[in-house]
Specification:
heterodimer, A: mainly beta, six-stranded mixed β-sheet, 1 helix, about 45% strand, globular, B: about 425 residues, mainly alpha, about 80% helix
Chain lengths: ~350, ~425
């Protein structure tokens, strides 16, 4: 072997790997300077907890406070935000209790669900098998459900790709052990579904804590299912519906649905009237992949990632009657949770 | 890179006809190992952060990611046979492998400009297409450049380097995201750089005509018969393929073992996303020693013993010993299983493949294993749901316990034929 090939490889190694390091360095410097800069949005000093109606969310505004839970007053969503001391990738809150799903970054990256009290003191933690997905409390804060993708293995083909658990938090049902939806019996059109690729996620509780709605999936199909916590059953209500969320008055369910003829990974928001069983698909030009939140009985909130900057997103609002296009609601925010103490 | 240069420098200084005791792993094997190392850093760094990227940046749920993962497996298995056949047919394994690595590197460069679900699916599919094409010709090159008596060790060295890449890739990626939380583009740039460098090392440093050092190379070239499919019906190869298939249908994906451990112990639950790193670490440490053992005591024996380790891994996961110890022992056994079977099966199949049909023989063995394991995972999933993880794993333990003596008997007759 002559010298030339080795020189070529060595030179290429310097150019390619050196280029990658140089690129990473500029990215790092850009990130640090953005991080050290004051937040790009107005922040304010007020309590993120307490008795005032508010919207809690993950703050994605570049600069100080990126990734932290923040809150705005319910009657002034575009106003200044108060930033809490806690980082979250997915957050939900009920009166006096808050749930936070996090990616614990590190050379070894892990994932955790942490329950906080009203003053952001950790109460309990659960390890998650992968990237956080959804979390929702019941209205009274006695139950919390959380979903995470199972993302550990790089090669393995595992039938389950999402894990959803429900924890009873206080009262006589309080228990160390969480309930796994994998252990529930699923029926679609009266027939049990026992295939291995069953997946469940996106729980929403009804005012009666024992009954909840969620998403079930198997063999490429999804269903809106009605769950019974005590009986450990899930019954399909209708097809093509994911990440349901019940309206505050309990009359309608909002969810994401795949419009006919759309590609995989393309969703629109729809609202189902539970008394008439009429579905209204809401307008909107961009695909929505979120568990929508009800701002009140007529308006929905959901997050959309910003296409121009990775890791940033906005919260949008849309009228539940389908009569208007979505509007930008809170900039640089993700995972909204409306808290009405 | 330094590994490659250091090894080359040493082997150059040695006389070509060296003694039997001083057999060295060919520099071609080390170069191919470095190519795999770089390529695995490239692919595993992206694979590790892909779920975060899809959910965090593209805002997609991982249900769609599961769909991508399915594409991964399917394409690779189908194309592998084609890659092996083409390498044998053209007698140009280097350039077939080069095509495979090149396609994957192009996919990595494409990822720099890709956005959206469809693009990512396309990139992943093209990457796996490349992986399918290159595997068998590369293993055929390892075979051609190695002294048959140290083939197990040669594959061990290659698999060690390969697995180092698979372990380093995710760590580098997570380190980048730790320093730059939104630094996905940095990971993609690093991935593309490593992929391109890997292709270059293959193209420039690996010779197109592979000659085994010390062997009567010229005579071998002339005697090389034209490849025919029916060569693969050779009874010795057929027995290896049957045994690989029988073991394959008893092999539960390690993801399932991790799930069992996770449900058993808090430790495994907390570290669930990283359990595969533990398995990989054991794999890379044991790959060379077990390859050496395979050369000395018989590849068939070590291959079967590897499945005994797998059997004990099942039993360990079933055992009522919760805690750190159980997880550690299970990962150790799983790592030993991969170290004793992955490279060793390649050495075993290459050793009995007909002349001129090495790549096809290897491709056949690897495809059979991939398909059999896919089947096993499907069946295991059904059993898991119907009877729970404990009974499902117990059933597979029983099946594997029956497969071990079967494999021993079938492969022993194969080994005897080879030694005649």
């Amino acid at each position: 072997m002559t010298l030339l090939p080795r020189v070529i490889v060595a030179a290429a190694a310097v150019v390619l790997l050196g280029g990658a390091v140089a690129f990473g360095t500029t990215q790092y410097i850009a990130f640090r300077s953005a991080q050290d800069a004051p937040s790009s949005v107005d922040t304010a000093e007020f309590d993120t907890t307490g008795d005032s109606p508010r919207i809690l969310f993950r703050n994605t505004a570049p600069g100080a406070g990126y990734g932290y839970v923040a809150a705005v007053a319910l009657d002034d969503p575009a106003g200044p935000r108060a930033v809490s001391p806690v980082t979250c990738d997915r957050v939900d809150a009920a009166a006096n209790t808050q749930m936070c799903l996090t990616i614990d970054r590190g050379v070894v990256t892990t994932f955790t669900a942490t329950l906080y009290d009203a003053h952001w003191q950790p109460v309990q933690t659960w390890p998650l098998p992968g990237v956080p997905s959804r979390t929702r409390f019941s209205d009274d804060g006695r139950y919390v459900a959380f979903s995470a993708f199972i993302t550990g293995e790089s090669y393995a083909t595992v039938g389950f790709s999402i894990s959803t658990r429900i924890a009873a938090l206080d009262g006589r049902d309080a228990a160390e052990e969480t309930v796994d939806l994998e252990d529930f019996a699923l029926t679609v059109a009266g027939a049990p579904v026992t295939s291995v690729d069953r997946n469940f996620w996106g729980v929403t509780f009804t005012p009666d804590d024992n009954i909840f709605y969620a998403t079930a999936a198997s063999n490429g199909q999804t269903w809106l299912v009605r769950g019974d916590l005590a009986a450990r059953t899930l019954v399909a209500v209708r097809g093509n519906a994911e990440c349901p969320f019940l309206s505050p008055d309990g009359t309608r369910i909002a969810y994401k649905t795949r419009p006919a003829g759309s590609a995989a990974g393309d969703w629109a928001v729809a609202v189902l009237d539970l008394s008439t069983n009429v579905e209204t698909v809401l307008p909107g030009s961009r695909s929505v992949d979120d568990q929508v939140e009800w701002l009140d009985n007529s308006t929905l909130l959901f997050g959309l990632p910003r296409t121009d900057s990775p890791g940033d997103s906005d919260i949008w609002s849309v009228e539940a009657d389908g009569q208007a296009q979505p509007r930008l609601f809170i900039e640089h925010a993700w995972s909204p949770s409306v808290v009405r103490p | 890179m330094y590994i490659s240069f250091a090894d080359r420098a040493r082997s150059k200084d040695e006389p070509p006809g060296r003694g039997k005791n001083a057999k060295r792993v060919s520099s071609v094997v080390v170069s191919l190992g470095v190519v795999s190392l770089l390529t695995d850093i490239s692919s595993e760094s992206v694979a590790a952060i892909l779920p975060l990227y899809l959910t965090g940046v593209l805002g997609l749920s991982t249900i769609a990611y599961g769909f991508i993962d399915g594409i991964y497996q399917g394409i690779s298995a189908i194309v592998r046979i084609g890659g092996g056949w083409l390498a044998d047919r053209t007698d140009q394994p280097k350039w077939v492998a080069f095509g495979g690595y090149g396609i994957s590197a192009l996919a990595r460069v494409w990822l720099l400009f890709a956005s959206g679900f469809a693009s990512v699916v396309g990139v992943v599919a093209v990457d796996r297409l490349g992986k399918g094409i290159r595997t068998a010709p590369r293993d055929a090159m390892i075979t051609a450049s190695s002294d048959p008596s140290i083939l197990g060790r040669s594959f061990g060295v290659h698999r060690m380097l390969d697995t180092i890449g698979a372990a380093v890739g995710p760590l580098l990626a997570f380190l980048i995201l730790l320093m730059i939380p939104t630094g996905y583009s940095t990971v993609f740039v690093l991935s593309a750089a490593c992929a391109l460098l890997g292709v270059l090392v293959l193209g420039v440093l690996v010779p197109g005509r592979i000659r085994r050092s010390g062997a009567a190379a010229a005579g071998e070239e002339v005697a090389r018969p034209r490849f025919r499919w029916r060569n693969l019906a050779d009874p010795r190869l057929r027995r290896v393929l049957i045994v690989a298939g029988v073991f394959g249908v008893c092999t539960v994906g390690d993801g399932f073992i991790y799930l069992v451990l996770q449900s058993n112990t808090d430790f495994a639950a907390a570290w669930f996303p990283l359990l595969y790193v533990g398995t990989n670490a054991v794999f890379l440490i044991l790959a060379v020693p077990l390859g050496r053992l395979a050369d000395r005591f018989g590849r068939a024996r070590i291959f079967v013993l590897g499945h005994v380790a797998l059997l004990f891994a099942y039993l360990c996961a079933l055992a009522p010993i919760a805690g750190v110890l159980q997880t550690a022992v299970c990962l150790l056994l799983l790592g030993a299983f991969y170290a004793a079977t992955d490279g060793v099966l390649a050495a075993l199949a290459a050793g009995v493949a007909p002349a001129g049909g090495t790549a096809s023989g290897l491709a056949a063995a690897q495809t059979i294993v991939a398909v059999a394991r896919f089947l096993a995972s499907t069946v295991f999933g059904v059993l898991w749901f119907a009877f729970g993880p404990v009974l499902a794993l117990a059933a597979f333990s029983l099946a594997l316990a029956l497969a071990v003596p079967t494999g021993l008997v079938l492969l022993r007759s194969s080994a005897e034929e080879r030694e005649r």
